[in-house]
Each structure stands twice: as C-alpha cells, then as structure tokens.
Write a structure and sequence with these properties.
Length: about 250
C-alpha cells in the first residue's frame, strides 16, 4: 500500500506547497481544506499533472466528528502535517476582547488536538510515523498586535513537545517548523510595502519567505533524513533571528 501523508489546511499557502512537495516525494496526499473546495481540487490537479496522487477531503479540523471522517479517509498514515491556519485577530491587549483571544488560542489547540489523537492511534498500529506542527516565529518573538497569535503558537509548541514525549516509544517523531513572514493569503492584510521592506531589513537573506521555502523544510523533516530527530523546532525565517538592531 502506498505511503499516505495528511496535510491540514492544504488548499492554499504553505499547506498547498507542502502537499505538492510530499506528493513529489511519492506520498499519496490527503489535501484537507475547510471551505474552498475549488482551491483544494486545484492542488490535487497540480499534483496529478506532475505524476503524483492526492485527494481533497473537507473537514474543519477543530471539529471532532469531522476529524473522525478525515482520519477514516486516510486508511494508513505515514505523515501528518498540522498546518491549518486559524486566522488570528491582530490587536494590542488593550483593545483585544476575551472572545477573540480565546477563539484563536482554543481554535489553534482544537485544530491539533483531535487530529493528533486519532492520527497517533493510526500510526501506532504500524509503529512508525512523522508529525510536523506548523508554528510561527511569533511563538517566541514579540511584535505589535500578536498577543493572541503568539500565545496560541507558544501553546501549540508546548503541546507538540508533549506529543513527542508520548509518541517516541512507538517510533513516531514529532517536530515543529516555525516560519517567519510568508507570502500567503493569511499575511496579505499585513503586507504593506513598508512592512515587507522592514521584514526584509530584519532578515539575513533580505526577503520575505515564499510558501515553497517552508514546504521544503516541512517535507525534509516529514519525509527526509530526520529519522532520529524529534521534539525539536526548526525556524524557517530567512535568518530573521540572527540580526539585532536593524
Ligand atoms: N503566512 C505567514 O506569514 C505565516 C507565518 C508563520 C506561520 N504561519 C502558519 O502557517 C500555517 C499556514 O498558514 P498560511 O499562511 O499558509 O494560510 P492560508 O494561506 O490562509 O491557508 C490556510 C489554509 O488553512 C485552511 N483552514 C483554515 N481553517 C481551517 C480549519 N478549521 N480546518 C481545516 N482547514 C482550515 C484553509 O482552508 P480553506 O481555504 O478551505 O478555508 C486553507 O487551506 C498556519 O498555521 C499559520 O499560522 C503562517
């Protein structure tokens, strides 16, 4: 039976690029999406045109019943990429409502809790598997308006390390990929020319990231030579983290 990879939120952006990359590495890819069926089908079409195989599966990964159906569609599972974008409210604490804050933090955790639990059960049967959680540099870095986003991603990373601790006994690895600013729909509202220029100045490579930059690292961690690497975090930030004072 062919190897199967499930990528949540794979209709657009980083998830779509990761789906294409994993398909190119020989995985049958489950292209999960929430609403945009046409986008998910376009990802599947692109994979098939390139000689790979994939299928779109609709599920809101925050909903346990829908996640049950999503995992049932997988048959076997070698790779899980938890990527679905729970859109954050960007505002300072002074104007943030509890409802918006809690919606992001709880949504982020719900989007990984149910799918991780069921995916791990499936992976444990074969005593192998790799899980990648897509976090953000905002889990550690401080920037204006990111109080909900940063808190949610920091919680996601704590969750991921605990899962790594539980999964290791079954030969399953669990790692975090943490991107900086990526040119996707999710960041479109924040991408003024000034903001892009400032991001570029603060990165060693002098540019924002493309979804393919992140997808290449996700695929390497999920399907490359990272056999004995677990519980770690790889920042994909074009060197953003090494500059102070620009
Ligand atoms: N873009 C950045 O600058 C950046 C930086 C750091 C980290 N990240 C992280 O990277 C991940 C992907 O972000 P992106 O920028 O690629 O997002 P994006 O372009 O907005 O795409 C989001 C994808 O997630 C899906 N999705 C949203 N809610 C979902 C749900 N509840 N269940 C299932 N799928 C859902 C969407 O499906 P539909 O299209 O069907 O709604 C879509 O396919 C996120 O975890 C984000 O936090 C992004």
């Amino acid at each position: 039976m062919e190897k199967v990879a499930l990528v949540t939120g794979a209709g657009r952006g980083i998830g779509a690029a990761a789906a294409r990359e994993l398909a190119a590495r020989g995985y049958h890819v489950i292209v999960n999406y929430r609403r945009d069926e046409a986008a998910a089908k376009a990802v599947v079409d692109a994979i098939e045109e390139a000689g790979g195989t994939a299928e779109p599966v609709r599920a809101d990964v925050r909903e346990p019943r829908q996640v049950e159906d999503l995992i049932a569609a997988c048959r076997r599972l070698d790779v899980l990429v938890c990527n679905a974008n729970i859109q954050p409210p960007f505002a300072p604490l002074a104007t943030m409502t509890w409802e918006d804050f809690a919606g992001k933090v709880m949504g982020e955790l719900a989007a990984v809790f149910h799918v991780s639990k069921l995916a791990l059960a499936l992976m444990r049967e074969r005593r192998q598997g790799r899980i990648v959680y897509v976090s953000s540099v905002s889990a550690e870095a401080v920037r204006p308006g990111a109080v909900a986003h940063g808190t949610a991603k920091a919680a996601l990373e704590a969750f991921a390390r605990q899962v790594a601790g539980e999964a290791g006994a079954y030969g399953i690895t669990v790692n975090i990929v943490a991107p900086g600013g990526v040119r996707t729909d999710a960041s479109a509202g924040l991408r003024t020319p000034e903001a892009e220029a400032a991001l570029g100045r603060r990165s060693v490579l002098g540019r924002m990231l493309e979804p393919e930059d992140v997808a290449a690292v996700i695929a390497a961690v999920a399907a490359g030579g990272f056999h004995a690497v677990t519980g770690t975090r790889v920042a994909v930030d074009a060197g953003h983290g090494v500059i102070i004072g620009r």
